[in-house]
Amino acid sequence: MTKRKITIAAVALIMLAAIATLLWTQCSAFKHGNREKQGNYRVINHPTPNISPGKNLVQGVVLHHTATRSIQDALGGLCDPRRSVSCHALIDHDGTRYILAPPDKVTQHAGYSMLGGKAGCNKFTIGIEFHGNTCLRPLTNDQINSAIDYLLPIIRQNRIPIDKIVTHQQVRDNWLAAHPDRNDVPTKVDITPAEHQRFIKALKARLQASK
């Protein structure tokens, strides 16, 4: 084989390798959503179809845990168009953040709820889901830090006070207290008080350090 033929063959192999890499990247993005890395954690865009009409006023944050067996189960439930369930961000044990909706969208995470005397928290809060069950296992440090990374710019931009960063159990209990006749809406633990306080302590420390 002449030197010219060897050069052409080498170029052809490089082009084939580049095309294969591009196709693999596109297929991976199609299967798993667009991925990037922000800080120490991966961020994966995974849009949910479960968005309500209107604009989110972003005046508070409601924390939840999924209580599902796997992150795939959590994503499946939060993105199932047959269910009225969603949130803005889902955070895995390793800190990976799945972004289901932008902050200005109204997601379906709080249901019967009240915060600061206002009912219907979906319309004015950010919903954060932590994968796992805090009744059985505490949040990982990665989950806490990743959630804070996500929330800090939102908190600053919208001037959200610390007392408006609460759990689903708290906003549901507020609503039930205002509707004592409704015994058909059960209360439930959704982020334990201990884990909520742990999260708030870490958030306050990050806010203080970033001043």
Overall mean pLDDT: 86
How does the helix and strand content classify structurally? alpha/beta
CATH superfamily of the largest domain: Peptidoglycan recognition protein-like
Spatial order of the strands forming the largest sheet: 1-2-6-5-10-4-11
Count of structural domains: 2
Rg over CA atoms, rounded to whole Å, is 22 Å
What is the CATH class name of the largest domain? Alpha Beta
Largest sheet, if any? 7 strands, mixed
CATH topology of the largest domain: Lysozyme-like
Beginning-to-end CA distance, first to last residue? 68 Å
Order of helices and strands: HEEEEHEEEEEEHEHH
Query: What's the count of strands?
Result: 11
Helix content: 25-40%
Low-confidence stretches at least 5 residues in length (pLDDT < 50)? 3-33
Q: Would you write up a description of this structure?
A:
The protein has 211 residues and is an alpha/beta fold. It has 2 domains: 3-32; 37-209, Peptidoglycan recognition protein-like (Lysozyme-like). The chain has 5 helices and 11 strands. The protein has helices spanning 3-32, 71-78, 141-158, 168-178, 193-209, and strands at 35-38, 41-45, 51-55, 60-65, 89-91, 97-99, 105-107, 114-115, 118-119, 125-130, 165-167. The strands form 3 sheets. It has a 7-stranded mixed sheet with strand order 1-2-6-5-10-4-11. Strand 8 (114-115) and strand 9 (118-119) form a beta hairpin. Helix 3 (141-158) crosses helix 5 (193-209). The chain is globular, with a radius of gyration of 22 Å. The termini are far apart. Mean pLDDT is 86; it is low at 3-33.
